[in-house]
Design brief:
Layout lengths: L3 E6 L7 E5 L7 E5 L5 E5 L13 E3 L2 E3 L6 E3 L15 E2 L1 E4 L2 E5 H8 L1
Antiparallel strand pairs: 1-10, 2-3, 3-4, 4-8, 5-6, 6-7, 9-10
Length: 111
């Protein structure tokens, strides 16, 4: 899958919250941590109106866009319910308590 970027400790991401990672030349990546401790990464933009998903509220396995309350599935980036659209996802892995994102995928999202 390619090179992995270390973006910090998993404990630095708030439970049911997020942090952003800046990717040179494009979109920021929003990295989320659920109440169950699972970590996901998505482009930091809603497919509806481009709202910053990192400013949304995490509910279970989804984040609510702060602009119009669209719910986006963290695992797939798909809009949930009646809404249609998809936000690009970035593979994540945890190693020794550190969060790593796939560099190649992050750059594709940023392009």
């Amino acid at each position: 899958m390619g090179e992995w970027l270390d973006i910090g400790w998993v404990d630095e991401i708030p439970v049911r919250g997020s942090r952003t990672v800046q990717v040179t030349g494009g979109d920021d990546i929003a990295v989320f941590r659920t109440g169950e401790g699972k970590v996901f990464a998505l482009a930091d933009r809603c497919p509806h109106k481009g709202g910053r998903l990192s400013q949304g509220i995490v509910h279970g396995g989804a984040v609510a866009c702060p602009l119009h309350n669209w719910r986006i599935a963290l695992a797939t980036g798909e809009a949930m319910g009646e809404d249609k659209g998809c936000t690009p996802t970035v593979p994540v892995k945890i190693s020794g308590g550190r969060v790593l994102i796939c560099r190649a995928s992050a750059l594709k999202v940023a392009a």
